[in-house]
Amino acid sequence: MNMDTAKKLSDHLVSRRDFVKLGTGAVALLANGTLPKSVLAGRRGSKPKPKNILLIFTDQQHIDTIAAGGCRHVRTPALDRLKTGGVSFTQSYTANPVCSPARSAVFTGRTSCEASVHINGRSIRTDIPNLGQWFSQHTDYETFYAGKWHLPRTYTSNIPGFKVINTGIGGFGYLCDTAMSRACEGFLRNRPKSKPFLLVASFMQPHDICEWLRLNMNNPGKLRYPELAGELPELPDNFEFDRNEPQSARKRRLGNEPFKGNWNKEHWRYYRWSYYRHIEHLDAEIGRILRALDDSGHINDTLIALTSDHGEGMGHHQMVRKSSFYDEAARVPLLFSWPGHVAANKADTVHLASGLDVIPTLCDYAGIDSPANMRGVSLRGILEGAEDSQREFVVSEGNTNTGRMLRTQRWKYIKYVNDSVEQLFDMKNDPGETRNLAATSQYGSTLAEHRKLLQDWEARLDVPANVPNAEMWRRQG
């Protein structure tokens, strides 16, 4: 080996094991500067890699449910800690405001229609790897999963790519989340610090609000607990809405409990108060896991990410639940923390983010390439305070592949299959989405531009033939 090649070996910090793996072609590869990324990942000056990764996944969490983020109606010490200790994205969108489809996007980095999970209760197509499978194949992290899966079964002991910490309880968050967080606590307190892990802690809460809605559908005509009268949150500013909306949105609203149960405004406020109590239960269980990280000495070695599958209507646009492209259902919390590595107490109000970004970001931190055909991007540069270019848009898909939302920096465009009513909102001047501008002539060019962006996005997707409306979207694009 000549001196130039030896210097390149030194510069790249190639291990003896990696050099042997490359075989007789190693010298030629080094001379040409074309060593594989998997080898160059260890070069001098490479970015630090967290010893462990913890992904906290919540269910049906409205983005404005963190006291440290300005929500006056909750006490959330655990969520506050994550927010003040890291970076939170205020313009973070789900890839699909429905449970299973959103989860498929987060765990594959591919759109829900590409993953063949266009509706609840479907499995991810077998030729697309999930997060656990990819990390198991390409890293030394041992991968574990605890809690709700829902791809297809809600709770299961068999998740490809993961060792399942099986708590054996499903159905309601007030039961299963406590069991799950205690299991994660036991795992963390007994995990040797020398063994790196990726752990997913997937909560059911605050999804129990769905059961609350069923139990409290009918307005009793008076407040059930009069002593709460002074504590009920006010109705949101966008409780009223522009009636020029697609049939899908109107049908969704009228099919929910408030309209079936003839709610008055006081009952709407009682529902909002109750939802915040579900958030506080979630926070307590997250706190248990964070304390275990502290006590076990893992906290400074662990990158923590938190997000949710979709939001909750919370009375905005007189909506409850999910399955809407209005921000209350479509926007979700997205937080990252790692002491000393991720910027602290930073609320990013500028960059658009997506559930599709989770895998690329975690892969970046793990020092590996992402799976092929990712639809998201790594957020690492933003998390570490580097200047990062603003992406042009993010897209969210609808249940059964019948709707699309495209969000650019200023505008939101919504389109449903076989519905002539489109929606266009100026998110700078109308963040509450109360004025649909799609039928206003002066915004015709903006509307056409967003139609074209969506058409081009659709053309790049690899959608299986068994997903409904795939060809229809291409024709309508």
Mean pLDDT: 90
The strands making up the biggest β-sheet line up spatially as 5-4-6-1-7-8-2-9
Structural class: alpha/beta
The shape, in one word, is: globular
Q: List the uncertain runs.
A: 1-45
Taken as a percent bin, the fraction of beta residues is 5-15%
Short description:
With 477 residues, the chain is an alpha/beta fold. Helices cover 34% and strands 13% of the residues. The protein has three domains: 3-40, no CATH class; 52-391, Alkaline Phosphatase, subunit A (3-Layer(aba) Sandwich), CATH 3.40.720.10; 395-476, 2-Layer Sandwich (Arylsulfatase, C-terminal domain).
Fill in the keyword field for this structure.
477 residues, alpha/beta, Alkaline Phosphatase, subunit A, Arylsulfatase, C-terminal domain, 3 domains, 8-stranded mixed sheet, 4-stranded antiparallel sheet, 17 helices, 14 strands, 34% helix, 13% strand, globular
Structural commentary:
The chain has 477 residues and is an alpha/beta fold. It has 3 domains: 3-40, no CATH class; 52-391, 3-Layer(aba) Sandwich (Alkaline Phosphatase, subunit A), CATH 3.40.720; 395-476, Arylsulfatase, C-terminal domain. It has helices at 3-12, 16-22, 26-32, 37-40, 77-84, 99-108, 131-138, 173-190, 209-215, 247-254, 257-260, 265-296, 327-330, 358-366, 380-383, 444-460, 470-476; strands at residues 52-58, 87-89, 92-93, 142-147, 163-164, 197-202, 302-308, 334-337, 346-348, 353-354, 393-397, 403-408, 411-416, 423-426. The strands form 3 sheets. Strands 5-4-6-1-7-8-2-9 form an 8-stranded mixed sheet, with helices on both faces. The longest helix is centred in the middle third of the chain and has 32 residues, at 265-296. It starts with a helix and ends with a helix.
